[in-house]
Amino acid sequence: MSLIQKLAGFARSPVAATPAVAQMIRLSAFDWAACALAGQDEPVARHLRDIARAEGGRPDASLIGGGKAPARAAALVNGATSHALDYDDTHFAHIGHPSVAIFPAVLAVAERNGASLDDILDAALIGAETSIRVGLWLGRGHYQIGFHQTATAGAFGAAAAIARLNGLDHTTTEHAFGLATTKAAGLKSQFGTMGKPLNAGLAAECGVMAVDWALAGLCSTPNALDGVNGFGPTHHGADDLSAFGGMGTTWLFEDVSHKFHACCHGLHAMLEALRDVENMPERLVIATHPRWMTVCNIDAPKTGLETKFSYKMTAAMALSGINTSAISSFTDDLGARADLQDIMTRISVTPDDSLSETQARIDADGKIITHDLSAPIPLSERETRLKSKAAALTPKAEPLWTALQSGDITTIRAALFG
């Protein structure tokens, strides 16, 4: 059985989500929506929205920020919009952002098809789990060589979600996955630019288009993922089939990590550790997993966006009492502040392969603090923190939460797109 055949079976199979997983996908939907609403005025969101409106076509799906567009264009715009602030959820198993690739695609097609909230959450869970599993299968080499898992693995997750939402048969679902292999793309070289959120939109768009193509009759080989010249072999994939063990009974999505700082998730363990530093240190050494050194270690950021990928600057911000949870803190003038520049001269960042990707260790004048983001957060505490975060992001947080709890899709759309 090829990998595509296996994934097609999962996309179509009945699932038994645990109450915790069901609550987690609902919390991620809320967090994703809050991030999307907060990102709608970012330049990348405005530019892409203008392009989608100018293109015209069937107004099947709503755009965050106003207007309508074909479903594939809405998925692209809303995906990029929700990742514009880089404040959305992350899954460290494959170093990717699941929700920004999955929810925009599912919501666009759901609006076109008239699907319910239960259908949306069901499809989104299948899509998110698929993206995580495919990301694990591709492995760290895929990421380290320069591919952006949010865009690559996310495209297959979006395809799985849309195939499920459309009720595709097994063969058509296989073709959708196969067609996605020839379009899925995204590079880490875009980090720190508008190209990074665009990657999320491209993944969402890819899922919609792959299914639409398959429904129209386009065919693909079932070996397009793991066969000779398939996506995995040509994209430095590790081909680790253990990534699919227990799929359908064990939910890796349950370990999704939500952001409580408005910057790259690779910085969060360090920022959480810094909360226990009471006085300004003369010397601060930050130890992190080696993979983060090429992701969020911009040494001298010149813009607010670059700051979101800088250990030294975000550490200096936190030590100075600047709220790293607030989007408004990440401004372009940070690099010109002499006080922050002075603090940065006292900070060094070093790789340590004894640390996991979710850990960071700081040495503040001899005080050693280690923090691990994988430590479980009770769902009740997670809900409270996400509500607080959302309230700071958008005035629509409360009506959005209420709408999600009611399950009324019309009310949800009004909160998100009204």
Q: What's the topology here?
A:
Layout: H1 3-12, H2 19-39, H3 43-55, E1 61-62, E2 68-69, H4 71-83, H5 98-113, H6 117-144, H7 149-166, H8 170-181, H9 195-216, H10 231-234, H11 268-274, E3 284-288, H12 304-307, H13 311-319, H14 338-344, E4 347-351, E5 359-364, E6 367-372, H15 379-393, H16 397-406, H17 409-417
Helix pairs in contact: 1-7, 1-8, 2-4, 2-15, 2-16, 3-4, 4-5, 4-9, 5-6, 5-7, 5-9, 6-7, 7-8, 7-9, 8-9, 13-14, 16-17
Please characterize this protein's 3D structure.
This protein has helices at 3-12, 19-39, 43-55, 71-83, 98-113, 117-144, 149-166, 170-181, 195-216, 231-234, 268-274, 304-307, 311-319, 338-344, 379-393, 397-406, 409-417; strands at 61-62, 68-69, 284-288, 347-351, 359-364, 367-372. By secondary structure, it is of the alpha+beta class. It has 2 domains: 3-257 and 395-417, Orthogonal Bundle (2-methylcitrate dehydratase PrpD); 265-372, 2-methylcitrate dehydratase PrpD (60s Ribosomal Protein L30, Chain: A, 2-Layer Sandwich). The strands form 2 sheets. It has a 4-stranded mixed β-sheet with strand order 4-3-5-6. A two-stranded antiparallel ribbon has the order 1-2. β1 and β2 form a beta hairpin.
